[in-house]
Specification:
seven-stranded mixed β-sheet; five-stranded mixed β-sheet; 19 strands; about 30% helix; globular
Length: about 625
């Protein structure tokens, strides 16, 4: 509910007619933006002293250099909201008062926050119809938010949950002050159940210092985390770039510092309160805290990592997937910066961004991630370019940025993209195998352990019976190879799951029970059930993949869209083997990365670096 009354108006020729409180009407011309005075200039607004018979506020708008000594202003972080409805705001240029249309959410933010101090809000301070100006101003976002005296996060008008939510923030921060020494690291709390957090407090303090679990403030706060601000991509960087202690969260008449507001989300843990939809805000606040730390300590923030971190954030314009993150980017290997051009074709921007990531990370892993993005909004992308608008699939080893985990290419140097821009990617490497048969059963598209266990039990037995030759006396070796392939060599062990030692008699005995039930009871040992559950969790890597039989290396875990005749290749600069499909001439299509036991640590590289084959990936 809003405590502000929106003005009534109608358009008339080259201006607008606003109704006064007395029922009379005032005419205002449409505001005409003047060009900014320099490439480092920004517009700021503040409350004007000018008044007329209406009660509507006037706002002074001026041009200032962001390098101006002593310049102080408040930057607003908000969502545009409903852009199908326009509301007039009166701007005073010093010569005359005129009207600019804004969305209701921007109008309420301005009328709530603006005082006699300067304020920057993009919808008014940037000429949205001037694409050249927008390009320059978007390029200044880093400086606009990092240099502001303070930043206000405007969540919108208050509702029935707002007072309770901010009341809980005050209560919790009064009970457990921010300067206290606590028996845990803050980041640990996000992944703990709420009751576990309470248990830790009772153990350390001898009593529970958190507000009671039945306090309605918890539900109110959870509803607050469902606000659109927490879902948007642009607002993500706006909460990270300013100094962390100069950010306020405002919802209607209620406010708190972002630091105090975020602490409640930490104590909330993984608690999913009944009747409250998925709280995206909890994850957003956790990511903001992590990136604030990296910004504060000047730690690397690669664009590839940022694109993955913000995959669940939303934005209306596909190009903003890249542009909204440029202010946060800090590469370990300096590369030519990306110039903002809001009119560039998205396909070209994404291809150019991918090549720059390759040059910065000295790796082709970014190309592997093209296969794990579900269909997004951008079509006709080359096979090596990720669609950053698509949702990232889960449990995928393409996202691993640990060069030491897999090294199929033996650390060979990537062929860095150079020269004139092209939608084609040139890479060095060679073929090492070929797919001769695809196992038709698809893996389940969910992470339910019981579903995965059932799937594994069926498909692994099928694989074992298919690959086992009558003359093959080394069944254990085959069992180990199939099991390692099903969990991609234990990739998810990096997430803290138990490690499988394939040489121990205990594990080998369990494999025999898994592959040959007739060898013994299905659960012959008390710990077999737990072992199978851990194995099934790690086998989430099978999602969106199929098993394939190869000419030489027997077995592979390949992308779902791989087919018979596709070839396995190792590319320089890519720590994972990939599946390639021949096209016209020497052109190939990248299907995606794969797991082949025996090829993951360089055993398949038999050629000298200078003798590598040249692939032209389209």
């Amino acid at each position: 509910m809003s405590f502000l009354r929106l003005p009534r108006y109608h358009r008339k020729s080259n201006g607008y007619v606003l109704q006064t409180d007395g029922g009379e009407s005032d005419f205002y011309r449409e505001y005409v933006y003047q060009p900014l005075s320099s490439p480092k200039a920004i517009r700021l607004i503040k409350l004007s002293s000018r008044r007329n018979r209406t009660t509507w506020k006037y706002f002074t708008i001026e041009d200032h250099s962001i390098d101006e000594p002593g310049l102080k202003y408040t930057a607003v972080s908000y969502t545009w909201g409903d852009d199908s409805t326009a509301v007039p705001i009166i701007l005073d240029s010093g010569i005359e008062a005129s009207v600019q249309l804004t969305t209701p959410n921007a109008w309420e933010a301005v009328h709530t926050l603006v005082t006699d101090s300067w304020l920057w809000i993009d919808q008014i301070c940037i000429n949205q119809k001037d694409f050249a100006e927008k390009d320059v101003q978007i390029g200044l976002m880093n400086e606009i938010y990092s240099r502001c005296a303070e930043c206000v996060i405007w969540l919108g008008s208050e509702d029935e949950y707002t007072e309770g939510a901010f009341g809980l923030v005050r209560q919790l921060n009064a009970s457990i002050t921010s300067d206290e020494t606590l028996p845990y690291q803050w980041h640990v709390l996000y992944n703990l159940p709420h009751e576990k957090i309470r248990e830790m407090h009772r153990k350390y303090y001898k009593f529970d210092r958190l507000p009671p679990a039945d306090d309605p403030g918890w539900v109110c706060y959870a509803h607050c985390l469902c606000r659109p601000w927490f879902e948007r991509l642009w607002t993500f960087q706006e909460a990270i770039l300013p100094h962390m202690y100069r950010i306020r969260v405002r919802c209607g008449r209620f406010e708190a510092t972002l630091y105090d507001f975020r602490r409640v989300a930490q104590f909330l843990g993984t608690w999913n309160l009944p009747g409250v939809p998925l709280m995206t805000g909890r994850k957003t606040l956790h990511q903001i805290a992590n990136l604030q730390y990296r910004v504060r300590n000047n730690l690397p923030r690669s664009l590839y990592t940022l694109l993955g971190t913000t995959a669940d954030q939303s934005c209306k314009v596909p190009n903003d997937r890249v542009y909204a993150l440029l202010g946060l980017r800090l590469e370990e290997v300096p590369v030519e910066p990306i110039t903002v051009n809001t009119e560039i074709a998205t396909e070209k921007l994404y291809a150019d961004t991918t090549k720059r990531i390759i040059a910065s990370d000295l790796s082709l892993l970014v190309c592997c991630s093209a296969s794990i993005r579900q269909s997004g909004e951008v079509h006709n992308l080359p096979s090596w370019v990720p669609d950053w608008t698509g949702k990232r699939l889960t449990a995928v080893f393409e996202t691993v940025c640990r060069p030491y985990f897999f090294s199929a290419d033996q650390g060979r140097r990537v062929l860095t993209p150079s020269g004139e821009f092209s939608m084609q990617l040139t890479a060095k490497g060679d073929y090492v195998d070929k797919i001769i048969h695809i196992i038709p059963t698809d893996s389940p598209d969910n992470e339910n352990v019981q579903v995965l266990s059932t799937y594994l039990y069926t498909i692994l037995l099928h694989l074992f019976s298919t690959l086992k030759a009558p003359s093959n006396n080394n069944e254990i070796a085959l069992m180990v190879r199939i099991a390692k392939t099903a969990i991609a060599g234990g990739f998810l062990q990096t997430k803290g799951l138990p490690k499988f030692d394939w040489t121990t008699q205990s594990v080998l005995k369990k494999l025999r029970c898994l592959f040959t039930p007739s060898h013994g009871a299905l659960f012959p040992a008390a710990d077999f059930s737990d072992w199978l559950q851990n194995f099934s969790i790690q086998a989430r890597i099978c999602q969106f993949r199929r098993f394939a039989i190869l000419e030489q290396w027997h077995l592979a875990l390949v992308p779902r869209h791989a087919r018979e005749g596709d070839r396995i290749a190792i590319l320089h600069g890519c720590s994972l083997p990939v599946v390639l499909r021949a096209c016209v001439g020497d052109e190939v299509q990248l299907i995606g990365p794969c797991f082949v036991d025996g090829l993951m640590h360089g055993d398949g590289v038999t050629w000298a670096e200078d003798d590598a084959h040249i692939f032209r990936i389209i």
